[in-house]
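Before a colleague's protein record goes any further, I have to sign it off. Would you go through it and say whether the fold makes sense for this chain? Take the sequence as given and treat only the tokens as open to question. The record follows directly below this note.
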Amino acid sequence: MSNVVKNAEINLGMPAQEWDIIGTSSLEIFDKYLSSGGLNYTKINGATIYLADGTKFYIGPTSSGLSGGFCKGLYYDVNGDKKPNEIGRDQFLFYLCSFPEYANCNTCISGFSTYLYRNAPNRDYFLKWCKEGNSNEKGYFCTHLIALDGWEFKNDYPLKL
């Protein structure tokens, strides 16, 4: 997903934080922005885009309005429609945010990002919350943990597929 957004930023000549996503439908975001990132997709079903490699992603609202309505969630599923369909196990959450200057989001940054906590002290924090989480955010910190680990699953990654 990161490469798709980076390619779209280059092709559009505009960073993701300047994309007009507030009040924009998921399909409009895909058509206007993400489709220029070089995705090889096979079909679109509602807000879900199926990719030729068997993966899919869904563009939707973020959980619990944590981002104040200025973000869309990009839920990337590494094995398409196959189970278990759990955040942190086979689905990974990214944010696409477009903030006005006054907005304050502690779990995301303007542009493209993972779900994070700005005041988190270190990798151990993300490992703990990836493993334990809470009922509203179970698995959400896992995407950032993988990012910290260079986009690979380390031996101590807690949620195996």
Q: What stands out?
A: Helices lie at 2-12, 26-32, 123-131, 142-148. The CA atoms of residues 114 and 147 lie 8 Å apart. The longest helix spans residues 2-12.
